[in-house]
Amino acid sequence: MLPGVGVFGTGSTARVLVPMLKAEGFEVHALWGRSEEEACSLAKELSIPFHTSRSDDVLLHQDVDLVCIYIPPSMTRQIAVKALGIGKNVVSEKAATAVDSFQMVNAARYYPQLLSIMGNTLRFLPTFAAMRQLLMEGYVGEVQVCDVRVYGPSLLDQSYGWTCEDLMGGGGLHTVGSAIIDLLSYLTGTRAQRVHGLLRTFVQQNDTIRGIRRVTSDDFCFFQMLMGPCTGGVCCTVTLNFNMPGSFLHEVMVVGSTGRLVARGTELYGQRNGSKREELLLGDGSWAGPDVKDIPLPHLLGLGAMVKALRQSFQEHEERRLWARGPVAMAPTFEDGLYVQTVVEAVKRSSFSGEWECVEIMNKEPDPNHNICEAQKRNKN
Question: Using CA atoms, how far apart are residues 337 and 181, in angstroms rounded to an integer?
């Protein structure tokens, strides 16, 4: 039996996710929205029997055993931690801060029998699964350089909201860059040790965001990562530019000692040293569903592949809460999410300081009263 699903969110991802879940045999029993109106409208559109703006109504729903969280990052940690505590399996988008991510990691460690994975769908995309396999087989030899370019239109919503605020998890680095950071770690099998970055907000106001309100989230980001050992390792460069209306560009190149692999959109190309031209290794994936403008094709096809993997994972057990690790083995864990958020915050620090920053993953939660205690010590002295 497949678990009943509760979905948090009414954005573009939720609109696409629900039909995908139903197509794979999942029953979506409940939908949460930030307002009753949002939840009611989408629930009617997608034929979901129950909707609410109260999170506990979904989490405590007797038919919901799998929770999919696609809401603003500042709200993610609260829902994910509570869902695990109640005994629900969780697929979650990224949190807003490393501290929030650390709390999600602690919850996942406390309930290891429950599914707890991040919703970075690029890992599931056949293009990158094939790229990783070829890298493991030595197609490019020793991996030396990774170069990523993602260009597209503005990520801002039509009205002022969390996408406009850096502190709430908006911006290209957090929204798209986090998926790239995770993908590069997945492809190379290494993690960033030091980073250097530059963030800019070129569009601070527009036709709908004006007056006293200004956009603080980045629409351009360039950063470098040194991954693996301090000497040797892999050099990575990532450029994110969301000031380009029109077509979406998504290119990931991995260069090694004997060749290179390039993923352009959903196509995979390769070229070995000495070869005169690159060869097509995996053709373009197609999307048979309705037109979705807000979700780039690589993420859209990856989302579909993730849902199929979830079905295979739960299908292997008769008890609807139990799952098999094999089909979702490539999925990023909450610990991967903590690593990614740590890198994101290190890139932001580097943009402010202009220096290379070390990536140090926290192993204990900071004391929320640390600043007060330090001030008291200084006053006593």
Answer: 10
